[in-house]
């Protein structure tokens, strides 16, 4: 891992940590509320007889317990999803091809980038039915992460990222378009060169488009770019369905 | 000022946060608690409701917490403003203090006892502010009365 990649990863992890504080905040507060409710119930039940007004109190406490359980469930689900997205991205040593639903990879990437995209960028999804693709999923997720981060960083303030997917002539295509600053024509030819960057400071996930291209080509696919300065860019990942179709049918 | 007459408004785009806070405050305090998941709706309610303390999340759709608290300050300067955020960076903390006249900066995950104390002090601050405001108005009106008397006296004597 290069210095550049490490810095970017740290940034992504910091964003994720912040994202986790929301469900953790709810769970921490609820744990405290549970303790207080238990103390109240114990107090009420300490007497031999339960009075009429105490029954009313118990009803109120049970309602609080209901809320706590419901919120904790939502919070735990949110944490589980966030951790799963990290796990899916972390498997860099994965050596076996798997039959993959590309939409799952895109969704998990979007979840991981929530902090980066939230409230600033509208993500439009135009997904078509796709056959499963035989590939190295975690590597592909890193390509998606990189393309989505680049798209997000190309948008200075607010904008839209459109993710389009479709199947065409034995290939599956994932297009990621942004309404950002676009790439100058003289840079367009070089964006896939390893190590090429126009960013003043390292701020992306750090794989760089060069490595993205290597990953996609290693899986028998290709990556294309179209861009207009001031209008935005579209990156297109084209992958052969390959043995994926057979495995999906199995 | 009793808790019963105190209204706390909470805005966070995550319902799990507003529900958790409401569960706690209803259990341990007698504040009237208003919760919103949209800052715009919350802002509208500040025109209609009696509010003493506002607690706002930072990262929200529509507007961020600092912009929200700044808008509350413009409408109701006496209301105590608290930011409750998981995005605790120094730059935003300074911005919140300078732009929104922040009373307290709370970080997620928060501690309920601490939150309760901050709310109690915040409500007291608002009450004192209002009391002071009322006294100043009284003084101003007394001053006007005196000026009127003085004018009448001068006229009567001349």
Structural notes for this entry:
- The complex is a heterodimer of chains A (250) and B (158).
- Chain A contains 8 helices and 7 strands; from the N terminus they run H-H-E-H-H-E-E-H-E-E-H-H-E-E-H.
- Chain A has 250 residues and is an alpha+beta fold.
- In chain A, strands 2-4-5-7-6 form a 5-stranded mixed β-sheet, covered by helices on one side.
- In chain A, helix 2 (52-90) crosses helix 3, helix 3 (102-112) crosses helix 5 and helix 5 (137-154) runs antiparallel to helix 7 (208-218).
- Residues 200-206 and 243-250 of chain A have low confidence and may be disordered.
- Chain B is of the alpha/beta class and 158 residues long.
- Chain B has helices at residues 15-28, 39-48, 65-75, 90-100, 112-157, and strands at 7-11, 32-36, 53-56, 80-85, 104-107.
- Chain B starts with 6 loop residues before the first strand and ends with a helix.
- The model of chain B has no long low-confidence stretch (mean pLDDT 92).
- The chains are: A alpha+beta (250), B alpha/beta (158).
- The interface between A and B is medium-sized, with 29 and 25 residues.
Main features:
heterodimer, A: 250 residues, alpha+beta, Heat Shock Protein 90, 5-stranded mixed β-sheet, two-stranded antiparallel sheet, 8 helices, 7 strands, B: 158 residues, alpha/beta, Rossmann fold, 5-stranded parallel β-sheet, elongated
Stated plainly, the CATH topology of chain B is called Rossmann fold
Mean pLDDT of chain B: 92
What is the residue-mean pLDDT of chain A, rounded to a whole number? 83
Largest sheet of chain B: 5 strands, parallel
Major β-sheet strand ordering of chain A: 2-4-5-7-6
Largest interface: A-B, 29 and 25 residues
At the third CATH level, what is the topology name of the largest domain in chain A? Answer: Heat Shock Protein 90
How would you briefly describe this protein structure?
The complex is a heterodimer of chains A (250) and B (158). By secondary structure, chain A is α+β, with helices and mostly antiparallel strands. Chain A has helices at residues 3-46, 52-90, 102-112, 114-117, 137-154, 185-188, 208-218, 244-249; strands at 98-100, 121-126, 133-135, 159-168, 171-178, 222-228, 232-240.
């Amino acid at each position: 891992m290069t210095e550049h990649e490490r810095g970017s990863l740290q940034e992504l992890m910091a964003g994720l940590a912040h994202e986790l504080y929301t469900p953790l905040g709810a769970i921490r507060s609820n744990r405290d509320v549970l303790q207080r409710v238990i103390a109240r119930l114990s107090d009420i039940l300490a007497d031999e007889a339960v009075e009429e007004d105490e029954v009313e109190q118990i009803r109120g406490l049970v309602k609080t317990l209901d809320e706590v359980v419901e919120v904790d469930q939502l919070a735990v689900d949110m944490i589980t999803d966030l951790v799963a997205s990290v796990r899916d991205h972390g498997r860099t040593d994965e050596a076996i091809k798997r039959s993959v639903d590309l939409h799952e990879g895109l969704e998990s990437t979007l979840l991981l980038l929530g902090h980066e995209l939230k409230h600033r960028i509208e993500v439009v999804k135009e997904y078509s039915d796709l056959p499963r693709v035989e590939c190295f999923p975690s590597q592909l997720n890193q390509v998606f992460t990189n393309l989505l981060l680049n798209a997000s960083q190309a948008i200075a303030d607010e904008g839209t990222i459109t993710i389009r997917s479709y199947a065409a002539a034995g290939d599956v295509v994932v297009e990621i378009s942004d309404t950002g600053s676009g790439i100058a024509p003289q840079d367009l030819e070089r964006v896939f060169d390893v190590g090429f960057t126009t960013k003043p400071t390292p701020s992306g996930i750090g794989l760089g488009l060069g490595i993205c291209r290597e990953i996609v080509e290693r899986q028998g696919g290709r990556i294309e770019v179209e861009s207009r300065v001031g209008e935005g860019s579209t990156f297109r990942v084209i992958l052969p369905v390959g043995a994926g179709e057979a495995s999906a049918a199995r | 000022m009793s808790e019963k007459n105190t209204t706390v408004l909470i805005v966070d785009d995550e319902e799990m946060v507003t529900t958790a806070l409401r569960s706690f405050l209803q259990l341990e305090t007698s504040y009237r608690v208003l919760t919103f998941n949209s800052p715009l709706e919350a802002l509208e309610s500040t025109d209609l409701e009696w509010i003493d303390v506002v607690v706002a999340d930072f990262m929200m759709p529509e507007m961020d917490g600092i912009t929200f608290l700044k808008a509350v300050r413009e409408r109701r300067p006496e209301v105590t403003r608290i930011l409750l955020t998981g995005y605790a960076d120094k730059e935003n903390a300074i911005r919140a203090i300078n732009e929104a006249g922040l009373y307290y900066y709370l970080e997620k995950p928060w501690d309920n006892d601490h939150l309760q104390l901050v709310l109690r002090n915040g409500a007291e601050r608002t009450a004192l502010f209002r009391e002071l405001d009322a006294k100043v108005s009284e003084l101003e009106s007394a001053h006007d009365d005196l000026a009127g008397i003085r004018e009448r006296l001068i006229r009567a004597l001349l």
